[in-house]
């Protein structure tokens, strides 16, 4: 997460604010459609955070396994990456 650390932290801080805003909207009994629009924005922003973290994982952890030359480590990181992609695409 070295390359995208600050971007990730900035986006998470914005997400935190958005979620607090949604909670306030619910407590104020705001219009449901407005609340749902905000939850959709949060989902989209969270997906962007996931992409940054996955990118860093590929560039650092997966690349380290490739560079190691160890087939078992390479296979493990490959399987891990596939599992992560499946979880984030669900």
Task: Please outline what is shown here.
By secondary structure, this protein is mainly α. The protein has 3 helices and no strands.
Description:
By secondary structure, the protein is mostly helical. It has one domain (4-89): Methane Monooxygenase Hydroxylase, Chain G, domain 1, CATH 1.20.58. It is 88% helix and 0% strand. The protein has helices spanning 5-27, 32-68, 71-89. Helix 1 packs antiparallel against helix 2 and helix 2 (32-68) runs antiparallel to helix 3. The longest helix is centred in the middle third of the chain and has 37 residues, at 32-68. The chain is elongated, with a radius of gyration of 18 Å. The two termini are 23 Å apart. Keywords: DNA-binding.
What's the number of extended β-strand segments? 0
**Helix content class:** over 70%
Query: What does the overall shape look like?
Result: elongated
Q: Using the coordinates shown, work out and report the CATH topology.
A: Methane Monooxygenase Hydroxylase, Chain G, domain 1
**CATH homologous superfamily caption:** Metal-sensitive repressor, helix protomer
User: What would CATH call the architecture?
Assistant: Up-down Bundle
> What is the alpha-carbon Rg in Å?
18 Å
The main sheet comes to: none
